[in-house]
Amino acid sequence: MTELSVSRSKRIEFIDLLRGWAVLVMIETHVVNATLHPEIFSTQFFQYLKFLNGLVAPSFLFASGLAYAITTRRKLKDYLAFGSPLIKLIGRLSFILIIAYALHLPKFSYSLLVNNTTPMEWQSFFQVDVLQAIAVSLVLLQGLLLIVRREVRFYYVTIALATIIIFATPLMWQVDFWKLIPWPIAAYMNGVRHSLFPLFPWAAFLFAGAFAGFLFLRVRESFLEEALQKYLWRMLIGAAALIGASVVIEPFASRVYPTYEYWLTSPSFVLLRIGCVLLLLAGMVLKEWKYGVSPRSVVTLIGRESFLVYVLHLLLIYGDFGKFNFQKWVNHQFGYSEAIVTALLLAGLMYGIAAAWSQLRKRNPVLKRRVELVVLAIVLGVFFFGPGE
What 8-state DSSP symbol labels residue 251? Predict the structure, then answer.
């Protein structure tokens, strides 16, 4: 048997490849959804494109679970104690949540927010998108780790919870939690009102990713290429099994659940997408170990700076800059050619910003921190003291 040439300290590139692919396709997805003429949405080709684009969020969540598993292995003792590393982790997740909700502010003005915001706008503010789903799912995982405290048992409980979430989702979507519990919590339970990515079923993708990361770490410890190949084959078999199971259970599931929507709540559709993500992951792993990943790879750089790229591209597509809003300006008048060119230009801009930020992070951390503080001061100044209209 031959040993892998990869050291334990080497960054695991396939996670960044998967996350980078997800973010790049996410840019295309948001551009297409925000600009294409409504007539195009009903075409057969767009339905195929919609299915492909629908793998973006599952991949993003799955990659976050993978990353958590890798990081937790290195910091397991730290994450089991209430010390500085755990506090930093909670701080990072809290920051993600703050940014996620800031992107939903109905008005970017403190005075207007306090004095001129309707209850419906506040409900929209509390809706759960991908960032909220990732942050809260990771908080739940970390809480579970503190309770279970043993790594192997923790991951088997995690995959059991993922299974429960998948099959409980149609039942959870029967209840209007907004009438029963506070709005900020109700938004995480289902998508009956405003949420696009409630924990049922979306936390299951992140939990499944964490379990897949744990399985990879168990194989990686042997440093044997044959063992890694065996792991990849198991992933492929697992993907085939999940896709097959999604087909088999669909006729039964549609009869068992009182409330059932295939594209929103069905366990079979969730299993299908996890299977597809596993196929993508297997391809990324093969890419890294068989062909290598260039240090200049655009995709891995985007993956490493995914949070920055995610926030910026949303602001550029949907944000208001004075009286200008790109989505409103286009007004769904683009065809495929204009949308593709726009997506490529936006992806290029995001790569440039990500590359510059990555270099700044490595070469001058002090300047990076100063830039962050200046940006924060400007944002807060505009929010609290800017003109309200």
Answer: H
SS3 for 221? coil
The secondary structure element, H or E, covering residue 315 is: helix 306-318
Angle, helices 267-286/13-35, rounded to nearest 10 degrees: 130
Residue spans of alpha helices (H) in 36-118:
44-53, 56-74, 76-79, 84-102, 110-115
Kindly report each contact of residues 336-342 with a partner whose C-beta sits within 8 Å and lies 24 or more positions away, as own/partner. 336/36, 336/40, 338/35, 339/31, 339/32, 339/35, 339/36, 340/28, 342/31, 342/35
Centre a 10 Å sphere on the Cβ of residue 34 and count the other Cβ atoms it contains.
18
Neighbours of 222 (CB within 10 A): 15
Mean pLDDT of the chain: 91
SS3 257: coil
3-state secondary structure of 3: strand
Q: Mind listing the pLDDT tens digit for each residue in 307-323?
A: 999 999 999 999 988 78
| DSSP labels, 274-293 | HHHHHHHHHHHHHIIIII--
Rounded Cα distance between 344 and 28, Å, is 8
CA proximity to 298, closest of 340, 338, 358: 358
Q: How many CB atoms lie within 10 A of CB 109?
A: 20
**Among candidates 82, 84, 22, 12, which has minimal Cα distance to 53?**
22
pLDDT of residue 296: 84
Three-state secondary structure call for residue 176: coil
Report the alpha-carbon distance of residue 105 to residue 109 in Å, rounded: 9
- Is residue 299 a contact partner of residue 16, using CB atoms and an 8 Å limit? yes
DSSP track, 109-159: -HHHHHHS--HHHHHHHT---HHHHHHHHHHHHHHHHHHH--HHHHHHHHH
201: preceding bond cis by omega (within 30 degrees): yes
77: β partners: none
Whether 310 contacts 23, CB under 8 Å: yes
> Which pTM does this prediction carry?
0.93
* Segment 199-248, tens digit of pLDDT: 999 999 999 999 999 998 888 766 556 667 777 888 899 999 999 999 99
Amino acid at 136: V
Q: Which pLDDT score, from 0 to 100, does residue 355 have?
A: 96
